[in-house]
Amino acid sequence: MSEGKQTKFVTAGRNKKWTNGVVNPPVQRASTVVFESVAEKHHAMVNRANKTLFYGRRGTTTHFAFQEAMVEIEGGAGCALYPCGTAAISNAILSFVESGDHLLMVDTCYEPTRDFCDKILKKFGVETTYYDPMIGEDIRSLIKPNTKVLFTESPGSITMEVQDIPTLARIAHEHSIIVMLDNTWAAGVNFSPFEHGVDISIQAATKYIVGHSDVMLGTAVASEQYWDQLREQSYLMGQCVSPDDAYLGLRGIRTLDVRLRQHAENSLKVAEWLATRPEVDHVRHPALPSCPGHEFFKRDFTGGNGLFSFVLKTSCPKATTALLDGMQHFSMGYSWGGFESLILANEPKSFNSLRTIANPNFTGTLIRLHIGLEDINDLIADLQAGLERYNAVLLEKEVSLSQ
């Protein structure tokens, strides 16, 4: 019997062998696993890579339940766990490249991903070429004989470009290139990676999977072709997570779809309101036509979330500070995906150090918002008050210049 979408989130990872008669899989903490016979130990050793208790770093029943749930949600053949999203990204890449290889990395990637390429992979002799997120068919021109991985992130970090993943994946596979996706924005819910040609789907489960801003956690779900290598290479690099964190990730899955729908509803209302404001040049929300790659969002995604950006018409750090410092419901913080609303600003010059190919061509300040689960009227009122403070500083500046 096929299951509805929300039913899957409630039931994923709740196999009786993990729950043992209760609703939630218990937290099983273990380093050493003991065996009563040589035969039992031998069985565990032979099956250690297949959800069998062997040693704590291989996982406990709590980890097995969470891994199984992630595979049920995203697809694929298996899920590797990491202590954070950055660890998931770096170890997924390291599992498949070696000295002399070439990596194609989207220029709008998460900043720590870029740092990893420039500071770690370069040291190991792996070359990285950054490409425009909207490159499409022209990705062919960047492929080299030694290109091993094509890394995508859609929507892109901060500027929210939505990539044409099926086209990129098709071309990559013509050259036997592994396609990786940072799928954190869609949370494995609103974009089905393996249906669109992705080989390894990576998430900072810290964000929407956990959903409460209290756990660091990363996941990488791989297709059958690449699962064994990802699993074993990650194990050899010492990757593991606390069973308590795995449990909290599993708990977050139960409300994931419901939370995402509310985040998406709230964010779209805020985005549409911002689009009417005279201070705003344009809004970069994938569900709106003003966002680059909106057509791919409409085609490939089944919903949105709370994260988007908007660009002001001007850049005035003093005015931006006035906007940010007086917020009542938006906090400043380097994350997103929790129940709370967040706000961060990026001046145009900041992109000079973050981008090499896809430096955005706007001159105003970019504001990134994560819209949480607060009352939407409170959030809009907070932003309105912030823009009034912003305008007051701009007016003061104009008056001083005219004197």
Provide an overview of this structure:
- With 403 residues, the chain is α/β, with parallel strands linked by helices.
- 38% of the residues lie in helices and 15% in strands.
- It is globular.
- The model has no long low-confidence stretch (mean pLDDT 95).
- The modification N6-(pyridoxal phosphate)lysine is found at residue 207.
- Its main location: cytoplasm.
- GO terms for molecular function: cysteine-S-conjugate beta-lyase activity; pyridoxal phosphate binding.
Précis, in short:
With 403 residues, the protein is an alpha/beta fold.
Tag the structure with descriptive keywords.
single chain, seven-stranded mixed sheet, 2 domains, Aspartate Aminotransferase, domain 1, 403 residues, alpha/beta, 12 strands, five-stranded mixed sheet, Aspartate Aminotransferase, domain 2
CATH class assignment of the largest domain: Alpha Beta
Summing up helix and strand content along with how strands pair, one would put the structural category as alpha/beta
Overall tally of structural domains: 2
Cα-atom radius of gyration? 22 Å
Question: What characterizes the major β-sheet?
Answer: 7 strands, mixed
CATH topology of the largest domain: Aspartate Aminotransferase, domain 2
CATH architecture level-2 label of the largest domain = 3-Layer(aba) Sandwich
Helix count from the secondary structure assignment: 13
EC number: 4.4.1.13
Pathway: Amino-acid biosynthesis; L-methionine biosynthesis via de novo pathway; L-homocysteine from L-cystathionine: step 1/1
Main location: cytoplasm
Subcellular location: Cytoplasm
